[in-house]
Amino acid sequence: MRGERAKRQLRYCVVVALFLLLFAALVLMNIQLGSVRLGTREIADILFFGGGSETGRGIIWKVRLPRACAAVILGGALALSGFLLQTFFNNPIAGPYVLGISSGAKLTVAIFMVAALSRHQTVSSASMIAVAFVGAMLSMGFVLLMARTVQRASMLIVSGVMIGYICSAITDFIVTFADDASIINLHNWSKGSFSGASWEDVRVMTAVVLITSAVVFLMSKPIGAYQLGEGYAQNMGVNIKVFRVVLVVLSSVLSACVTAFAGPISFVGIAVPHLVKSFLKTSKPLIVIPVCFLGGAIFCLGCDLIARTVFAPMELSISSVTAVIGAPIVIGILLRKKVRG
Q1: Which residue in 95, 107, 203, 296 has the fewest CB atoms around it within 10 Å?
Q2: How far apart are CA 229 and CA 153, in angstroms?
Q3: pLDDT-derived band at 305, boundaries 50, 70, 90
Q4: CA-to-CA distance for 12 and 337, rounded, in angstroms?
């Protein structure tokens, strides 16, 4: 018994150490690589001693560092949102993008942005998150309604995909008939991108995501009990109705924050929790939640690096890269589930 416990702890330590090394390497590469390549010494001089060229300082402090921070924070938020939805529906391929939650948030944000920009009004970060949260909750309400109606998990996923397509189609109509200034502002965002992130955006998303993530972590014990079944959770003193509402709200806040700042990003919420559980060989929330956040940050840092360097100076949408990498993982989940079934 002690030997097995020691092996599990060793596995956890090794996985976390590897994740941290990969995270540090990707942060450095995201700061270093781009249309203008910066050396490691120059980066250290700029970050820690205030030296370096004026161009280098502008590139790091105004462009690459806030963008990397956005990828870390929003990537972690997406992974946690996917973990909560997979726990809620007890389905390994549930996620904010697949269930149409991100698309619902995208639609309401697009309407709000077009209306505000057409009147030459400024759009605050807080209002964007609030509007995205409304869209996410509306989509989530539809999914929950379908969950009561249909019994098969496949039909639930299909329903989520359909609402995603509907919301995306309406968003495209809105963008098409918007004025030129609104289209320019909406184009990159509607495709999914971390570009244009400012330090003000980073401060707001950090506050929202970290507070929400802390609440999720504090709920580790009831989440673990819920994973063992509703009956077991009730016996452990968990109020199921309140607990399910809290799960929905937390997952919607996380996905809304991502959509408000970076647009819809696909497959991260499905792929990362699955990979983390596979590496750790456990689904214990106390362990999975922090590693899941770290895994989401790594996943988005890597995908964003690919998006802006592979075909430089042309930049791909982040959602295209995450789909290419994440879709095979989802297919693997489905095939494994079918073999086990």
Answers
A1: 203
A2: 17
A3: very high
A4: 25
State the alpha helices, DSSP H only, in 263-284. 268-280
Residue 239 resides in a domain: yes
* 167 within a domain of the structure (yes/no): no
Between CA 212 and CA 217 the distance in angstroms is: 9
In whole angstroms, what is the distance from residue 137 CA to residue 322 CA?
24
- What is the total count of domains within the chain? 1
Residue spans of alpha helices (H) in the chain: 2-32, 40-49, 54-58, 65-89, 101-118, 125-149, 153-176, 180-191, 199-218, 220-227, 230-235, 240-262, 268-280, 285-309, 318-340
pLDDT in tens, 188-232: 677 778 887 888 889 999 999 999 999 999 999 999 999 888 888
Q: Which among 190, 326, 169 has a CA at the least distance from the CA of 259?
A: 190
Confidence of residue 44 (pLDDT cuts 50, 70, 90): confident
The answer as to whether 120 is a domain residue is no
Write the DSSP string, 141-186.
Answer: HHHHHHHHH---HHHHHHHHHHHHHHHHHHHHHHHHTS-HHHHHHH
Say what the pLDDT of residue 304 is: 92
Residue 106: other Cβ atoms inside 10 A: 27
Tell me, what CATH number does 217's domain have?
Answer: 1.10.3470.10
pTM for this predicted structure: 0.88
Instruction: Answer yes or no: is 169 within a domain.
Output: no
Q: How far apart are CA 171 and CA 42, in angstroms?
A: 43
- Work out the burial of residue 218: count CB atoms within 10 Å of its CB; fewer than 13 is exposed, 13-18 middle, 19 or more buried: exposed
